[in-house]
Design a protein that fits this description.
Helix content: 55-70%
CATH architecture: Orthogonal Bundle
Protein name: PadR family transcriptional regulator
Number of helices: 4
Strand content: 15-25%
Order of helices and strands: HHHEEH
Number of strands: 2
InterPro entries: Metal_resp_DNA-bind_regulator (IPR052509), Tscrpt_reg_PadR_N (IPR005149), WH-like_DNA-bd_sf (IPR036388), WH_DNA-bd_sf (IPR036390)
Distance between the termini: 31 Å
Structural class: alpha+beta
Shape: globular
Length: 110
């Protein structure tokens, strides 16, 4: 299981990527993250992040009918969200390279 402190810094970008792949709702985001190996991330953790993404105009929500109960809020990326996600991916690749270089070796002090 990934420690929550490590997840905090990357969860927002990962949620943007899940939404980019398919317009979806909070519970489904939680399930998809679990399927990708993030462990159980509660909807109570997902909702505040989505609210922050909405306030930042990175995602927008639409109410859609549900087969099993009340209407659901489905989220999709805005143009600003796509730009932010692309920046997250670039930053992640840079961080990934640096951490791997340190942990696996091949750094300048080796």
């Amino acid at each position: 299981m990934i420690p929550s402190q490590m997840l905090k810094g990357v969860l927002e970008g990962c949620i943007l990527e899940v939404i980019r792949k398919q317009e979806t709702y909070a519970y489904e985001i939680s399930k998809q993250l679990e399927d990708y190996g993030f462990g159980m991330i509660s909807v109570g953790t997902i909702y505040p992040i989505i609210l922050r993404l909405q306030k930042s105009e990175l995602v927008k929500a639409t109410l859609q009918d549900s087969n099993s109960g009340p209407k659901r809020k489905y989220y999709q990326l805005t143009e600003k969200g796509v730009t932010t996600l692309n920046q997250f991916k670039a930053n992640w690749q840079e961080l990934d390279r640096a951490v791997n270089q340190l942990l696996i070796g091949g750094g300048k002090n080796e």
